[in-house]
From TrEMBL:
Subcellular location: Cytoplasm
The name this protein goes by in its record: Acetylornithine aminotransferase
Residues where N(2)-acetyl-L-ornithine binds: 141, 280
Cofactor note: Binds 1 pyridoxal phosphate per subunit.
Subunit structure: Homodimer.
PANTHER family attached to this UniProt entry: AMINOTRANSFERASE CLASS III, SUCCINYLORNITHINE TRANSAMINASE
Chemical reaction(s) catalysed: N(2)-acetyl-L-ornithine + 2-oxoglutarate = N-acetyl-L-glutamate 5-semialdehyde + L-glutamate
Organism name: Vreelandella zhuhanensis
A GO BP entry: L-arginine biosynthetic process
MF terms in GO: identical protein binding; N2-acetyl-L-ornithine:2-oxoglutarate 5-aminotransferase activity; pyridoxal phosphate binding
Presence of the UniProt keyword Isomerase in the record: no
């Protein structure tokens, strides 16, 4: 029986761990979407920094169609050509020598943490098991990754959390120095905290973490799930800082909307992920790998990466103009096309209110916690869509100001 689902069907058939908007998009093209009633929206949310090339980009569509008619899935019992090509492309474009492919950022971070612990035990003994992360960080939804993440609300209510995990303050090297020691196996950090408020690391902070890891024979893990694949204006954000990690995780923009992720590391560390120590049924899936390779090759070009930096300036300029009129933001920050606007004191906690008002105006946006408006649009969003989207955002903010 054919039927058209509606928002009430979510409440009826789906577990209640999400609270989606009332509209249901059914079609997308570039940086625009259309809902069931045919109403158009400009997309500044990007599927939470996933749709790096917008919706239905012809390069990704062609890669998916071609691979879909050739080979879908083999499992890790066999290698496949798209996965090998993707791994080669990632190695050639980064510090890495080896790649582990999986399906989500949480999986990639789980693999990174397991590898770090196993490497430390193999090379330094059972005592070297401490992992340092940062308050307000976010690393995924597996039990290990929510425990390493610095937001207790995500791990509460599920029983005892894994041990050996310590949390320092982001951009505060002294707080790390108080925790690090010879029992530290890894420090895990986002070059820019995403869910924690779109907060970029300072160069001195990341350089200090690199030095501490070197001094204590610990591994430096960069979680670039949200900042990677062009989002920061470089292929990976570590290139902005000149600080090289030992392990890097990547997802979201990697597949441009197709579920795929990877953990990257070096020949020094990779052998600890020996045969049978870890795996992923769908990791290295031929469909996902083909799409990801097309995304990487398209994005890692001067035209796209320089375009990200140019668009960042346009977004910042529009946000500053809006703020000059309405005074709703305390600070505008971010890198590339992952930007955050922290609410002013009188609008504390009101970022979420903007989302519903923006939908009324035909704009999709995000938040990063209750106090930061987050924008993560397509890396190739047309300038006219930026201007029109910002006009819609300003109308939403005008409504917020009136309601205040």
């Amino acid at each position: 029986m054919d039927y058209t689902p509606n928002r009430h069907d979510f409440d009826r058939y789906m577990t209640p761990n999400y609270a989606p908007q009332e509209v249901i998009p059914v079609r997308g093209k570039g940086s625009r979407l259309w809902d069931q009633q045919g109403r158009e929206y400009i997309d500044f949310a990007g599927g939470i920094a996933v749709n790096a090339l917008g919706h239905c980009h012809p390069v990704l569509v062609e890669a998916l169609k071609t691979q879909g008619e050739t080979l879908w899935h083999l499992s890790n019992v066999f290698a496949n050509e798209p996965a090998l090509k993707l791994a080669k492309a990632l190695v050639e474009r980064t510090f890495a020598d080896k790649v582990f492919l999986c399906s989500s950022g949480g999986e990639a971070n789980e693999a990174a943490l397991k590898l770090a612990r196993r490497w430390a035990v193999e090379h330094h003994g059972e005592h070297k098991d401490k992992i340092i992360s940062f308050r307000q960080s976010f690393h995924g939804r597996t039990f290990f990754t929510v425990s390493v993440g610095g937001q207790p609300k995500y791990s509460q209510g599920f029983g005892p959390i894994p041990g050996g995990i310590l949390h320092a303050d982001y951009n505060d090297l002294e707080s790390v120095m108080q925790l690090v020691g010879d029992d530290t196996c890894a420090i895990m950090v986002e070059p820019m905290q995403g869910e924690g408020g779109i907060l970029p690391a300072t160069p001195d902070f990341l350089e200090g973490l690199r030095q501490l890891c070197d001094e204590h024979n610990a591994l430096l893990i960069f979680d670039e799930v949200q900042t990677g694949v062009g989002r920061s204006g470089e292929l990976y954000a570590y290139k902005n800082y000149g600080v090289t990690p030992d392990i890097l995780t990547t997802a979201k923009s990697l597949g441009g909307g197709f579920p795929v992720a990877a953990m990257l590391t070096t020949d020094r560390i990779a052998p600890s992920l020996a045969i049978g120590t870890h795996g992923s049924t769908y990791g290295g899936n031929a469909l996902a790998s083909a799409v990801a390779l097309a995304a990487i090759e398209f994005i890692d070009t001067p035209q796209v990466l320089e375009g990200v930096k140019k668009r960042h300036a346009l977004f910042r300029g529009h946000l500053e103009t809006i703020n000059a009129k309405h005074g709703v933001f305390k600070e505008i920050r971010g890198m590339g096309l992952l930007m955050g606007a922290q609410m002013a004191t009188e609008y504390e906690g009101r970022a979420k209110d903007i989302l519903a008002l923006a939908i009324e105006e035909g704009l999709m946006a995000l938040i990063a916690g209750p106090n930061v408006l987050r924008l993560a649009p397509s890396l190739v969003i047309p300038e006219e869509d930026i201007a029109e989207g910002m006009a819609r955002l300003e109308r939403a903010i005008e409504k917020l100001v009136v309601k205040a």
